[in-house]
Amino acid sequence: MAPFLPPNVILSGFKERIESLLAQGDKLYVGTATGNLYVYLVHNGESSEGEKRAELLETKKALSRRAIEQLAYVQDINSLAVLSDGSVTLYPLPSFSPPTSLPKTKGALSIAVHTVVEHEDEAQAATQSDGSISAAKNRGGVPVVITYLAVGCKRKVVFYSWKDGEPQDVKVSLNIYETTLPHSPRTVAFMNGDTLCFGYTPSDYVLFSLKSMTTIDITVPAPTSTSAASIGSMGMGMGMGMGMGKGAFSGLSGYMTLGLGTKTKPNALRVDEKSFLVAKDNTGYFIGEDGKLSRPVSIDWPAPPEETAFVKPYVFSVLPPGSVPSSQVTAHDTSAPSFIPSAVVEIRSSITLLPVQTLPLPLIHPPPGAPPTSSNQTVRLLTSSPACKSPLYLVTTPSDRTTANVEGSSIVEFLMKPWAMQIDELVEAESYTEALSLLDSLESALLPDKEQRKNLIRALNAVLLFRTGHFAQALNTFIELNTNPAKVVALYPESVAGRLSVPPEEWVSLFGGPRKVTKSESSSIDDPGSSLEETKPQDAGSSIQRPPSPHGSVKSMLKTGLENIIAGAKKDDDTSSVRSKRKEPPKDDFRRSIEELMRYLSDRRPKIGGALDTFHITNTQAHEMPPLSAASIEDLFALPDAPLSALTPEQLVRYAQIVDTALFKSYLIVRPGLLVPLCRSGNWCEVSEVEKELRAREKFTELIYLYNGRKMHGKALDLLRHLSEKEADMRDKLMPSVTYLQRLGPEHIDQIFESARWIFDQDPDIALEIFTSEEVELPRQHVADYLEMLDLDICAHYIEFLIAERNEQSATFHERLAELYLRMTSDARKHGDNEKRKGTYGKLLHFLDTTNYYRPDRLYGLLPSEDFYEAKAILLGRLGRHDNALETYVYRLQDFQKAEEYCKRIYDPSGPTSSIFLTLLRIYLRPTHQPTSPTIDLLHPALKLISRHSPRLDIVETLKLLPPLVTAQDARAFLVEALRAPVFDKKVISGIAKARDEQIARRLMVLQAKRVKVTDSRICPQCHKRIGGSVIAVHAPRGEVTHYQCREAFSRKLKELRH
């Protein structure tokens, strides 16, 4: 990915030697060796030739007597700082007059400008406390713009500052404007408003604090390679040995040499407000505010860079000829030299530290037909804008002096591609880590859709992690991004994802990335775990590790020796294959990926359930929702990647169905034991996608639970019936189906009736347990109708259960049971089954005689006229027609004992049935109907009745009913009992009791008439004191009067005297 557009020459044929450049807005200031200053306007538009051009606005001849070595722009006073002839002068813009010389800058070597926004109250407080001004950023107070100008002179540094355009001293209280240094800073760079970096030599750097006006030594690791001074001879010798092209080191006598052995300028670049990049030899270190490494990695250049520049976030460096391998620019070509024979402009990312663009000279190739441009050119003065932003300018000059005098120098402009384009190119190259790092370095104002792009790239990076075996990291990212679970599941083979499974070559496009089909991907094996098992896990951070030195670079030569560059020395393919065979076998990536998927799904599942609860939707309603199979794959992939709280109920249901189905399949593959708890707890699983697998694996219990949870009871019961065929014992055969039916509710009554029929055919008693269970209460009327349709006896058993166990008291069921008994008795008589008839009729009689929850008149109307006489007698008795009931017992049934027992049962001496025995006697002795048997003798049972129940019979009425021919001997027991009637004794006892009551009443009257008189002289016989007005007690029978408190003692005294 090339982040910069092809370089564009904006100015060519410049005959003077350019010593300094400054880009400020659309102006480009060019300082020359003769002291002239040229001001150009850089047009944003393109010329007709397709190249950007610079228009000369102004020329300041002899602005300085000597070469203009460095230019800087002081924003606060809108002036140009010019370093020339060892001093710094300020020129107001745009008039350049009057100039202001800074006398303290004699012997100036370098300058740097930094502008910050501080807050007035904080700055003043800092000045009063320690005598210095510190940059107080992002705090309260009135913001002010402060510009610092640092001038590095011989063994000292001088500071100037302006606040809102007004000059001020850095240390006002001490009136100190400069600080001595141990060495002369040849390079000065600001990190922030508090910290600067001074470069004394190419290998000696220090940090300087404005707060304390002290230096901090920079600590870097000890070099591991030969010093740069020895690179010249070794590099050239090895370069020649590698077959470098002729002229690779020619023209070194021009403006610019290879830099090996010459005194180069220190390179220090401000990367951000907390770090610098300093170049030591061929290594670039990132230094923090404490002078230590701020990053554990560093930049490894193939040779010490001659110049560096920074355009956020890229590092430009100019590398000498013969230091960069040709393979870094073009594909390997055996005819091409191993190293690029010209200088190279290398662009690296400060994020990944990898080269992103390598441009060998000449940077601009002439159009076809034009004379070729010499590659022997020098590159100098890499200059970016003060804010380290695009564009960047540099100067190219032919190395040959004669050619330089003829062609002159050119100023080349590097324009950065738009951020969106850079990120898109990184995404297309699958450099997701670099794209994310680049996004993090950008502000939202530069890229309005930053967050959307970041989420997309994070998802694509997670796909890459998944592809390389980092399943946990990938799925954690999907959780953080609230990724549509359909897309996550689609990364797995069909055994897990089903129809959602997507081949690896389509993963990127599935997650919103560019579609890119490679040959290797199109020929990938379609094995379920091929995409997972054949990939070798790599470090997820490999893209940001310190890159190795390029093959054939100077550094690699110095590290490994000359044997590393022997021509034709290559590894034997056979040897490498043997080494690969010795590696440990790869882990079971497929199983590991399933384990991580289960963790992901287990995380999503309760959260989706909680989101559904807010809409009052639970998994018990899964059967009411559209199945997952009803949605197309495109619709499922189109579900939004959003927090669960932002989804609609329909989308949440789809999420739940996808998650539970994938979790079910995952358990089926690696954790079969967890299937039963999953099915029992309720789920949103798509049955059609898993039932075949469960049947194939004979997971019938799990399948039944699954059917039950999704209210697919018909399938579950059919499966249970199929499984029952394998059982020999009848109870083992039927009870699973019975138990299942017992748990179904009234809403499934039709399914229960349909599935119970075959169980009744097998064993009615076991089948009846379906309706007598306490699990669920079914509609009793419907059940009774169903059972009556099957068998009267079964229905009778069911109603008997209701009455006995469920305390059913409605007349409907009691009358229905009586009707069933009646019908069963009639059917048994028709079929000649006397035993069954007797048993059923006995139940009917017992039922009619013991229960009260029926209407006797209705049941009586159902009885036939020529049978069921005993039942009729019971019903007549319930109707209060006792005489008719007794007549039925006597005349129809001729069962005198039952008639007598009937009288005993209803007899009430103080109620309307007090004469029931007399009624029975009358039926015996005064028949109103002809008995069924003419020879029956009713006198004998009548005599037995009066002998056993004479106290319950009226004597006079009984004697009237007895026939004249009945002898006294026949009625002897009745007569004896009648004569023993206690009429006289009662009158005597009554008279005695009355007399006794009168006697007691008279005695009470006498006692109540007695009085005692207490005078002032009356003395208590116990204590011999005057009674006076005290409480008294009167003692019987003589009426002695004592104090109340003396009563007990006097009573004891009287008792002793009496005895």
TrEMBL record:
Subcellular location, principal: membrane
Claim: Membrane is one of the keywords in the record: yes
Membrane topology: Peripheral membrane protein
Stated family: Belongs to the VAM6/VPS39 family.
Biased composition (Low complexity): 520-531
Disordered, as annotated region: 515-556, 568-591
Domain spans labelled CNH: 15-374
Pfam families: CNH, Vps39_1, zf-Vps39_C
PANTHER family linked: CNH DOMAIN CONTAINING (PTHR12894), VAM6_VPS39-LIKE PROTEIN (PTHR12894:SF49)
Record keywords, A-Z: Membrane
CHCR repeat positions: 770-929
UniProt organism field: Somion occarium
Lineage, top ranks: Eukaryota, Fungi, Dikarya, Basidiomycota, Agaricomycotina
Compartments (UniProt record): Endomembrane system
Protein name: CNH domain-containing protein
UniProt keyword annotation of Membrane present: yes
